[in-house]
Design goal:
Helix 3 runs parallel beside helix 4 and helix 9 runs antiparallel to helix 10. The protein has eleven helices and ten strands. The protein is of the alpha/beta class. It has a single domain, classed as Alpha-Beta Barrel (TIM Barrel). It binds ligand PBG. Ligand PBG binds next to loops.
Length: 327
């Protein structure tokens, strides 16, 4: 590399056309996935206060959303369900008539295989206490019983026609158990994208309003990862690879770009990052106050997640980014 004045790095930054031509990373809508909420028994969509632009959908509006997502070239839709009934174990999670199976069938009827449909697999939206599985007498989630529930959820979602199940409960052994359960039931084609390194994060706050999954008490720090840990994430990713995950997810995204970069460096499986509710909400909140340009900040955030090494980004801004013209 020559030095100044022969070398002038500004030459390739001079015009929009030059910058476009030499961009190392692109925000292709196909590499984005939109998370969406579907509420059982809903009579029309309802806005989520802490997440501008995000709705709790009914069956009709989730299909309209899927059609819009497909038309915009967004890579897929990740479904979360809000059931009418909750209990201690979260049994409405595996009800074949539950919100996620019903939405999946409706989307398949409208779009066939043209849109990739993902289902989040966890009990926290389905338990009356809001934890990720059944609790013991101390109020701690019982690992192996929670996993049994995830297998039943995954089977219900696979039977309804999802392409991908994404277990998010951070129970040990969940990926292997789901793979075995799916294969034994003839669903060997359904992929598992493991929430492999999922941190106990304050950035999930708005999600719990959107999914109506606030906890009655306690926290998730005994199973989700400690934000202090980076090497431990490599162990989590390694275990999920061995257990048969088809792709590895890191969550949240922006505060954990080092982990995303590690995953890209050390694994050949696709890397997925989840730009979570709080990351989305804070950009909107600042933009509403006029403190930053929300569109530009959102685009920069998601581009940065791709630059750090994510092949696919789950983001509530997927449709906005896809529908906006490129900068
Ligand atoms: C659990 C789950 C959560 C999120 C995705 N799956 C909540 C949690 O772990 O507490 C959070 C997503 C977000 O904040 O956008 N089913």
């Amino acid at each position: 590399m020559a030095t100044f004045p022969t070398s002038r790095l500004r030459r390739l930054r001079r015009t929009p056309a030059l910058r476009r031509a030499f961009a190392e990373t692109r925000l292709d809508p196909a590499s984005l996935v939109l998370p969406a909420f579907v509420r059982q028994g809903a009579d029309g969509p309802e806005p989520v206060g802490s997440m501008p632009g995000v709705l709790q959908h009914d069956l009709r509006s989730i299909v309209e959303l899927a059609e819009r997502v497909h038309a915009a070239g967004v890579g897929g839709l990740l479904l979360f369900g809000i059931p009418t009934a909750k209990d201690e174990v979260g049994s409405s999670g595996w009800d074949p008539e539950g919100p996620v199976p019903a939405a999946t069938r409706a989307i398949r009827d409208a779009l066939g295989d043209e849109l990739v449909v993902w289902a989040d697999v966890c009990q926290c939206e389905y338990t009356d206490h809001g934890h990720c599985g059944p609790l013991d007498e101390r109020g701690v989630v019982v690992n192996d019983e929670a996993v049994e529930g995830y297998v039943r959820d995954a089977l219900a979602y696979a039977a309804a026609g999802v392409d991908i199940v994404a277990p998010s409960g951070m129970m040990d052994g969940q990926v292997a158990a789901i793979r075995d359960g799916l294969d034994a039931a003839g669903h060997e084609e359904v992929a598992i994208v493991a929430y492999a390194a999922k941190y106990a994060s304050a950035f999930y706050g708005p999600f719990r309003e959107a999914a109506q999954s606030a906890m009655s008490g306690g926290d998730r720090r005994a199973h989700q990862m400690d934000p202090a840990n980076r090497r431990e994430a490599v162990m989590e990713l390694t275990l999920d690879e061995f257990e048969g995950a088809d792709a590895l997810m890191i969550k949240p995204a922006l505060p954990y770009l080092d982990v995303v970069a590690d995953a890209r460096e050390s694994f050949n499986l696709p890397v997925v990052a989840y730009h979570v509710s709080g990351e989305y909400a804070m950009v909107h909140a600042a933009a509403e106050r006029g403190w930053l340009d929300g569109r530009a900040a959102m685009r920069e955030a998601v581009l940065s997640i791709r630059r750090a090494g994510a092949d696919v980004v789950l983001t509530y801004a997927a449709l906005d980014l896809a529908e906006e013209s490129a900068p």
